[in-house]
Protein backbone atom coordinates (compact mmCIF):
# COMPACT_ATOMS: atom_id res chain seq x y z
CA UNK A 1 0.00 0.00 0.00
CA UNK A 2 2.80 2.43 0.90
CA UNK A 3 4.55 1.61 -2.38
CA UNK A 4 1.36 2.39 -4.34
CA UNK A 5 0.94 5.75 -2.56
CA UNK A 6 4.61 6.61 -3.22
CA UNK A 7 4.20 5.72 -6.93
CA UNK A 8 1.06 7.90 -7.21
CA UNK A 9 2.86 10.71 -5.39
CA UNK A 10 5.87 10.52 -7.73
CA UNK A 11 3.61 10.31 -10.80
CA UNK A 12 1.73 13.46 -9.78
CA UNK A 13 4.98 15.36 -9.10
CA UNK A 14 6.29 14.30 -12.52
CA UNK A 15 3.03 15.42 -14.19
CA UNK A 16 3.20 18.84 -12.48
CA UNK A 17 6.84 19.31 -13.50
CA UNK A 18 5.94 18.43 -17.10
CA UNK A 19 3.02 20.87 -17.07
CA UNK A 20 5.22 23.68 -15.69
CA UNK A 21 7.81 22.94 -18.38
CA UNK A 22 5.21 23.35 -21.14
CA UNK A 23 3.95 26.63 -19.70
CA UNK A 24 7.51 27.98 -19.41
CA UNK A 25 8.22 27.11 -23.04
CA UNK A 26 5.18 29.07 -24.22
CA UNK A 27 6.40 32.24 -22.46
CA UNK A 28 9.77 32.15 -24.27
CA UNK A 29 8.08 32.70 -27.64
CA UNK A 30 6.54 35.96 -26.44
CA UNK A 31 9.97 37.48 -25.71
CA UNK A 32 11.09 37.05 -29.33
CA UNK A 33 8.08 39.07 -30.51
CA UNK A 34 8.79 42.04 -28.24
CA UNK A 35 9.64 45.25 -30.13
CA UNK A 36 13.11 46.77 -30.22
CA UNK A 37 12.61 50.31 -28.88
CA UNK A 38 14.91 53.24 -28.12
CA UNK A 39 13.74 55.78 -25.55
CA UNK A 40 15.70 59.02 -25.15
CA UNK A 41 14.92 61.36 -22.24
CA UNK A 42 16.18 64.95 -22.29
CA UNK A 43 16.77 66.81 -19.02
CA UNK A 44 18.10 70.24 -18.11
CA UNK A 45 20.79 70.81 -15.48
CA UNK A 46 18.09 70.97 -12.77
CA UNK A 47 16.85 67.48 -13.72
CA UNK A 48 13.61 68.76 -15.29
CA UNK A 49 12.30 67.37 -18.59
CA UNK A 50 13.02 69.42 -21.72
CA UNK A 51 9.96 69.35 -23.98
CA UNK A 52 10.16 69.91 -27.76
CA UNK A 53 13.92 69.28 -27.90
CA UNK A 54 15.30 68.09 -31.23
CA UNK A 55 16.85 64.60 -31.12
CA UNK A 56 19.21 63.46 -33.88
CA UNK A 57 20.23 59.78 -34.08
CA UNK A 58 23.23 58.96 -36.27
CA UNK A 59 25.75 56.18 -36.64
CA UNK A 60 29.51 56.45 -36.64
CA UNK A 61 31.44 53.95 -38.70
CA UNK A 62 34.52 52.36 -37.19
CA UNK A 63 35.70 51.37 -40.66
CA UNK A 64 36.07 53.64 -43.68
CA UNK A 65 32.48 53.23 -44.77
CA UNK A 66 29.79 55.89 -44.76
CA UNK A 67 26.85 55.55 -42.38
CA UNK A 68 23.41 56.02 -43.82
CA UNK A 69 21.40 56.36 -40.60
CA UNK A 70 20.18 59.84 -39.73
CA UNK A 71 16.93 60.09 -37.82
CA UNK A 72 15.54 63.34 -36.45
CA UNK A 73 12.61 63.80 -34.09
CA UNK A 74 11.19 65.89 -31.25
CA UNK A 75 10.65 65.03 -27.62
CA UNK A 76 7.12 65.06 -26.21
CA UNK A 77 5.88 67.20 -23.29
CA UNK A 78 7.62 64.81 -20.87
CA UNK A 79 10.97 65.24 -22.65
CA UNK A 80 10.88 61.71 -24.13
CA UNK A 81 11.54 60.63 -27.72
CA UNK A 82 10.66 57.03 -28.62
CA UNK A 83 11.42 55.10 -31.80
CA UNK A 84 11.07 51.44 -32.78
CA UNK A 85 13.82 49.65 -34.73
CA UNK A 86 13.89 46.36 -36.60
CA UNK A 87 17.46 45.42 -35.61
CA UNK A 88 19.73 46.19 -32.65
CA UNK A 89 22.37 48.90 -33.13
CA UNK A 90 24.55 51.49 -31.41
CA UNK A 91 23.77 55.10 -32.30
CA UNK A 92 25.11 58.51 -31.38
CA UNK A 93 22.42 60.78 -29.92
CA UNK A 94 22.62 64.58 -30.23
CA UNK A 95 19.88 66.60 -28.57
CA UNK A 96 19.39 70.35 -28.51
CA UNK A 97 16.82 73.06 -27.98
CA UNK A 98 16.95 76.72 -28.99
CA UNK A 99 15.63 78.96 -26.23
CA UNK A 100 14.45 82.51 -26.90
CA UNK A 101 13.63 85.39 -24.61
CA UNK A 102 11.79 88.55 -25.69
CA UNK A 103 12.10 91.78 -23.71
CA UNK A 104 10.14 94.94 -24.50
CA UNK A 105 11.56 98.15 -23.03
CA UNK A 106 10.27 101.70 -23.19
CA UNK A 107 6.80 103.25 -23.29
CA UNK A 108 4.48 102.88 -26.27
CA UNK A 109 4.92 104.10 -29.02
CA UNK A 110 8.65 104.47 -28.31
CA UNK A 111 9.52 100.82 -27.48
CA UNK A 112 12.45 98.55 -28.17
CA UNK A 113 12.09 94.81 -28.59
CA UNK A 114 15.11 92.68 -27.76
CA UNK A 115 15.04 89.00 -28.68
CA UNK A 116 17.79 86.87 -27.15
CA UNK A 117 18.50 83.37 -28.43
CA UNK A 118 20.39 80.75 -26.51
CA UNK A 119 20.65 77.02 -26.91
CA UNK A 120 21.19 73.98 -24.75
CA UNK A 121 22.63 70.74 -26.09
CA UNK A 122 24.01 67.35 -25.15
CA UNK A 123 25.18 64.09 -26.67
CA UNK A 124 25.51 60.44 -25.72
CA UNK A 125 25.45 56.96 -27.22
CA UNK A 126 22.62 54.47 -26.96
CA UNK A 127 22.98 50.72 -27.35
CA UNK A 128 19.67 49.44 -28.70
CA UNK A 129 19.15 45.83 -27.61
CA UNK A 130 16.92 43.44 -29.56
CA UNK A 131 13.42 42.83 -28.17
CA UNK A 132 13.90 45.32 -25.32
CA UNK A 133 13.21 48.97 -24.51
CA UNK A 134 16.64 50.63 -24.31
CA UNK A 135 16.70 53.91 -22.38
CA UNK A 136 19.20 56.77 -22.40
CA UNK A 137 19.00 60.09 -20.53
CA UNK A 138 20.81 63.15 -21.83
CA UNK A 139 21.46 66.29 -19.78
CA UNK A 140 21.37 69.41 -21.93
CA UNK A 141 23.95 72.09 -21.03
CA UNK A 142 24.52 75.56 -22.47
CA UNK A 143 26.15 75.31 -25.91
CA UNK A 144 29.15 77.47 -26.70
Radius of gyration: 27 Å
Total DSSP helices: 1
For the sheet with most strands, the description reads: 5 strands, antiparallel
Low-confidence region ranges = none
Mean pLDDT: 83
Structure description:
With 144 residues, the chain is of the alpha+beta class. The chain has 1 helix and 8 strands. It starts with a helix and ends with a strand. The strands form 2 sheets. Strands 3-2-5-6-8 form a 5-stranded antiparallel beta sheet, with no helix packed on it. A 3-stranded mixed beta sheet has the order 4-1-7, with no helix packed on it. The model has no long low-confidence stretch (mean pLDDT 83). It is 22% helix and 49% strand. It is elongated, with a radius of gyration of 27 Å.
Task: Chart the SSEs and their pairings.
Elements: H1 2-32, E1 36-43, E2 54-58, E3 70-74, E4 80-85, E5 89-107, E6 110-128, E7 133-139, E8 141-142
Parallel strand pairs: 1-7
Antiparallel strand pairs: 1-4, 2-3, 2-5, 5-6, 6-8
Distinctive features:
three-stranded mixed beta sheet, five-stranded antiparallel beta sheet, 8 strands, 144 residues, 1 helix, alpha+beta
Amino acid sequence: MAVKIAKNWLASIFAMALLIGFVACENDDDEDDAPTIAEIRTLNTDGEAVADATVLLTCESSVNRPCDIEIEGKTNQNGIYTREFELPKVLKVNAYKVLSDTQVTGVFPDTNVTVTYDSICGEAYISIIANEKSRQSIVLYECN
